[in-house]
Design a protein that fits this description.
The protein is an all-beta fold. The protein has no helices and 20 strands.
Length: about 230
């Protein structure tokens, strides 16, 4: 049963600002207080030629106490793999009210090709100091390219690294390459001068490039620390 027919809602913000091409994603919308807590919100995406290319059944994100009338609702709307381009958005507080309940959102959403890394050189280095590496691939040379390093826990470990992630600006960026500086191995999580019980930091760090702060290379490459030794307590 349609609960929100005739109800409009202001979209306060949305994230991310840009979507990656050729892979499913999610668009998260934060709504005005007048929307209440919509359980059946919907989103449609339209190409520049006026053709609808996708529709999404949005889900309410449980990030507020339902009793808090001053906490704006947030909905997450899955989006399919899309081609590169700019798409118009239309949003409905209650999709069961039909096509006329969808209202245009100000501004479109850009879909861009993420960077794709094919190789890195060198692929390993010392654990006690930073290492400069060169990444090669395609679709790299975009503004605001960053190097993203993810430090996972070793397989089977309860806890992982002292620093789970690091983001640094890329240098010498071209359409096919970028230079990144891999931080020194962060080691296991520490409590004072001693590793936290059960913490093991992997010797491998996952390396990605971002075209913007929102679009990551979908297939990270691996840099390995040569003499890092995970510590299990």
């Amino acid at each position: 049963v349609c609960q929100g027919c005739g109800l409009s809602a202001k979209v306060r913000s949305r994230w991310p600002a840009v979507l990656p091409a050729s892979s499913p994603s999610n668009l998260q919308l934060t709504l005005g207080l007048e929307a209440g807590r919509p359980e059946t919100a919907g989103l449609t995406l339209w190409a520049a030629n006026g053709t609808q290319v996708a529709s999404s059944d949005c889900k309410l994100v449980p990030d507020c106490d339902p009793r808090d009338d001053h906490c704006p609702a947030t909905v997450k709307c899955p989006t399919p793999a899309l081609d590169v381009g700019t798409y118009n958005l239309r949003f409905s507080v209650d999709r069961s009210c039909g096509p006329k309940s969808f209202e245009p959102l100000q501004g479109g959403i850009d879909v861009i090709e993420p960077a794709h890394i094919d190789a890195l050189e060198p692929s390993q280095g010392p654990s006690n100091k930073a290492t400069t590496i060169k990444l090669t691939g395609r679709d790299i040379g975009e503004p605001y390219t960053n190097c993203v390093f993810t430090f996972p826990a070793a397989p089977g470990a309860k806890l992982g690294c002292e620093m789970p992630m690091s983001v640094r600006g890329a240098e010498q960026v071209t359409s096919t390459s970028a230079v990144c500086t891999v931080p020194a191995w962060p080691g296991p999580m520490m409590q004072g001068d001693h590793p936290v019980e059960g913490s093991v930091c992997s010797r491998e760090v996952l390396v990605q490039l971002t075209q913007t702060t929102d679009v990551y290379d979908p297939e990270p490459v691996v840099f390995r620390y040569e003499d890092a030794v995970g510590i299990l307590v």
